[in-house]
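Today's session is about reading a structure prediction critically. Students often jump straight to the picture, but the first step is always the sequence itself: look for stretches that repeat, for charged clusters, for runs of hydrophobic residues. Only then move on to the predicted structure, which in these notes is written as discrete structure tokens rather than atom positions. Here is the chain we will use throughout the hour.
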Amino acid sequence: MKQELDADTRDVSGLWNEALKKYKGIVGVELQAKFQSVDEMIAYGTDQMNNFHKFRHDQKKVDKLRSLFVANMSLIEKGAQQLVAAATPAFPPAAAIGTAFTYMLNACRQVSADYNVVTAFFEDMNAFLQRISILESRLPSNKAYRNCLMDVFTSLLEMCGFATKYIELGRFKKWLINLSKGEDGELGGARKRMDVSLKRLQDATEYAILGNTEEVKRMNADLQKNQDLQLNMAEEQNKMLQAVMDGQDTVKTELQSIQKLLVMFDQRRKDEGPKQGASKAASQNKPPTSNRVRSSFPESTNPEVEYKSIKDNFIPETGSWIFEEDAWNLWATQDAAKNPPKILAVSGPPGSGKSHLAVSAYDKLFAAANGGTGETNVGYFFFRETTKDLQYFYQAINWLVIQLAEQNTLMCERINVELAKEDSDFDSWGWEDVWGNLVKPFFGKSSKSKLQIVLDGVDELMFGERDNVTGFLKMVSEATDLNVTVFCTTRETLVPALTEMGAAFIEIVKEKQSADLKALVWQHLNKDSGLRKFARYMKQRIATELEEKADGMLYAEHMLRQFNTIGREPLILKQLATAMPKDIDELYENILADVQRHIQPSQHASLKTLLAWLSFSREPLTLGDSLGLLRLQPGDVFDLEDELQGSHLSRLLKIAGVEERSDEDEDETSLEAKDPESGYDDADLPLKFQERSMRGFFRSTKPGDTGLRTAFYEAHRRIFVTCSDIICGRAQGVKESLKKYAAASWAYHLSFAALGKPGVSDEENILGLEAMGRIMSNEDTGAANILESLGVDYKELARDFREDWFLGNFKYYASGADKYKDKLSQATVAWAAETSVDQNKALVPLASAHVANMLQAKDMKLALRSYRFARTALKRTSLGEFLDEEEEDIEEDGLEDQEGENSEQDILGMVNAFPDIPKDANSHWVIAGLLHHSRHWDAALSEANQGLEIVTDTLDRFRLLDLKSNISIGLEDYEESFEAIKAALALSDLPPNLLRRGYVTRAKAEAHLKRLDDSVASFEAARHADPGEPMAGDVLQAEFATYNLKNVDSESINVVKKWTPLEKLSFMTWRYDMDSDHHEYFRRLAGRTGQQEFLVQAYEEVIEMLDRVDAAAPIRLELAQAYWDVLFDAEKAKGLLDEVLKTNSTGYFWRFTNEDPVLTLTNALLYSTDIIYEEFRATSDRDSKAKLLAEAKGLMEKPLARSLTPQKSDLTHYNLTLARMARKVGSLMEFQDLLELAFQNSYELLEDTVGWNDYTSLLLLAKVLSTLPGLDKEVEILMSATFSELDMEDEEEEEKKEEGDKDGEDDEEESDDEEEDEDLPTDQGDLSGAEVSCSGECLPQIKWRFWEEGKPLYQCTICSDTLLCEPCYQKRQAYNAGEPSKVGSNYCNKNHKYIKGPMPGWKGIKDGIMTIEGSEPVPFKEWLVELKEKKWKNAWERFWLAED
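Below is the predicted structure for this chain, in token form.
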């Protein structure tokens, strides 16, 4: 050892520098000193741990890993003391390894690494570092010994590097498992080198203290202890890793089962129709609450992507010439004395640099706004016809609102105030709504705020979207009450329209761009890899030629790129002299000619087809779609992917960036871990032309072009024919997204097919007419089936057309078919003959096919889908006159789950419209099912019985009997229901899914018959009938409800105990967004039976599964309620609520529960507030009270609160509670400010145009008034008005109501709401129909819709939402006095105060007039104004004058 140490002449600093280089080589990142202290490093590492997907909701896990991280950092610092001075020139070892640990933690967070695996690694490192510490403390300060120590740290750094690499590759778990088995590999080799270096350090240390026997003994004892620790740890880790391996199959199976449930839940969500989604959260360095604004809009491509794309190619100081233009200065200054224009337009041909000027203009305006008073706001948008989200004008206005919120804190708060209003019911898909509600009000003429908008490419919008943008610009131009100006860029096409509305213009001409062109040319000549090597003469020659020949910036760009690729000066000189294109179009022709020469002639047809689609498709075509399209082409097809890598076609086409990735094919229900490489598949990225002007070049082709370009009408004709082939099933193996495009766009392309127009050959006319006839006549039933499967109905198709152009196109083309009747199929000729006479017959064959599909459906979902298609087709035919006009406004996507939406007349009329369609037993089952779905019970029963009379098939008989049983339940004929399902289950050879359905139906019938034991037995039989499939949540909830009716708590809790975790998940989440009362029953049941531990376990099982899809927040909130109401554990409840509030949300509804995250935020906020206030009331310590007030104030600073906008009413109770707390430990001025805010919120809600929230607003305002003395009568009035209609119905509404009543006189059935309204009394004035329920323990739950004698209502003034009936109120008082509760959970809390309603003498509100016995009638709204202007103010005067 002595010789070895003496021979070690290495420099310790050099060793460490080599180690840092090696780390960079492994990870690809250079370690940099980014932390000022170890504490800062630990804080960063802890933040990464808190965000680990796998254990972000488990603080114990975070604490354990943090402790290991801190311990490791301490050991590294201690062990590296000798190396600090020696390695000063380099990044010190302790800091470098600590930073490497943080890099590793960040990688873990990115890929959601497994907690146990991450912890195992840190435990292993901890034991290793302890060993180093034992040895380092005994080392002499000697160079050779330091080298031994440095070898250990370099191997440790290498180990961290490989660990980070394998984490990023998603192979960390696999590596650790292999390492535990002793298998080799990169990481295993690094670990072995670490062990060898440590062994050498140990040998050197033993040699250094060889003469000190006692010290050797102590060291060996320490090392043995460390070795024992390592052995024990290794044994535990091996067990853990083996469990990981053994559990992988279990986890996979469980994930598959969860996925089945998710498919069911997701289908239910789709059936109920789309709910507005939201965009991704705003980035950093913006007002925190701007996230709320962004999450209020649907997710879409951020225009910043296009801005940055242009900016990346921006040459400094170019584009500034427009700021010298008189038109710019006149527009920018808006000097009223000079009559400035509101619109400034920059016009120029394709490729002239308009977009660069738009970016330059935005930068100039934004810089001026930022350097000003903050009164000027600037927004921008880039319209792009080939980028889906940038094709619509409403997106520009949506993003304008988001930009205003992200740029200006004051504007952000003002927008949030508007969003929080209950009557803020704007349509984010309608620009007028968003503009009128969220932009226009802030920029009135009287306001100091100004808005400047930059819109690039307004000419790229098509049809209705172009009308939208010109309508907007006209509105801005003519508005005399708006401080809004617009800068826009356009080609010549929109110049006349803009001129008419008084816009000023800056025309792009070559002379104005001269300086920019020179800057562009020299930028390339001096920077491009090939050009920069040229001689000065050559560079000057190129510059001179381009300055003379280039007709725009894009021309110069192309030529410079071409010269750079050529790279040979003689060839470039020759081209400069003889072959320079005269303009950008000729340049494109040269590129196209080059491509045509390169591609084999036999492949030209396929290339021409692709280019036509890319030029004229309505939406961007992805690479995958393009490849699929090419597979449909006959003959020799070129290799698209290969050509895109070459130097020819790549000059025309490019694959778009990942920010434009299509999400059409994403499976929202997939829970499988994705292959790390799947994110790099570019099949779903759009395939585009290199630039927009190139697409314009292809679209401008004249008829007769024989090259690779296709003229407008010919292209649309060919695209339509392909769409027809896809829709009619003639094309096989078509990608789903291409099918959807064909289904959504065939009518659009047909409208431009120009069939029968001059110049169209007979062959093309016949091809187009036959393709149209195949769809419209439903040849071989292909079109109707495929259209249904793709979900594009005729209402959606008709949206592309104005007025009756949709049907008019069919008539026009059909009228030309007679000329070719000998060459067309009989089906096409027959359809054309009918349609050419009456366009209202165009869709009759398709409508007939959809009705036939409906009657043949074996599944009610499919029947309802066919019904939707049949309805939207019939609505556009002469046969559909019987259809209800109002039903056209139904959200068709949600028709399958909208019970009661379809009239009996519509359903039966649709069937009778086609008497030639044969009707068998299955048809009667479908018709009965549709009628049952819409609650037309009598008609449904009649159809079911007709089916039973003719049925012969066993399965059809079962379905009819099962349906009859359910119809009988609707008719409340429970005996008949039971007999029908009994007969159904007596049939033999039933498949498992039908058996389960039958047992569930029987269970429902038995429950209605009060045969509860039989009912629960039937539910159990249903579970076992189809054991391979998860039980639906509605069935589990019905089973639970049946057990509760038995009133035997032990049986009820035991049935839930028997359920699998998946069944518990289904039970807890099914239709959660519609009704979550079963959670309250479950909690109380667990409390009554002493099963609190099981209660928590059940919730935690479900939460663990939902955490895998980031959807556990609503159920975590339910568990928080369990801890508070059942286990009385405030800290656990608050911890869970804190986790909910720390969740980030983009506004999308939670998966499984389909819960709106705004409601989750509201509930978490209110529950947290109530718990904190109870703690506040319970403590006498002033410091504790102050901390609780600060805690309550901090709730709105949590991530979820910053991400979403709660409605105003949701914050009233929160502000009221803060006011009460401030009254104790804050200032009285703060108390008044908060109480005023709560008052104002409630008051405004009663003044707005929204009526549905009046009853809650009345109750909230009553609670607010009860806080100040002297307003007792006003509190009673508000409480008493809970069920009253506050506003007088205006004459127009009354007339409409009367007309509606007349129209409905002949209806055989009335809606449930109408029946309920008949039950309302007439002596309490106008009643709103609002219903409230008791929050106590009464069963069945007492409800109110009006005041009844002896049925008072008590509102708690302290809880966020507690209303009690008389019995529950009295029980609550008894509990306050010490009587034990038997309900199983707490409701309200001890010694709360209540408001009782109604007040004596209350007579209600009639036509807006409030009547109280013994008082003069008074208009309620006048009383409300007096309350605000006089009584409220007087109460404050008394408050401030009162002496303590």
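Discussion point for the tutorial: The CA atoms of residues 854 and 863 lie 5 Å apart.
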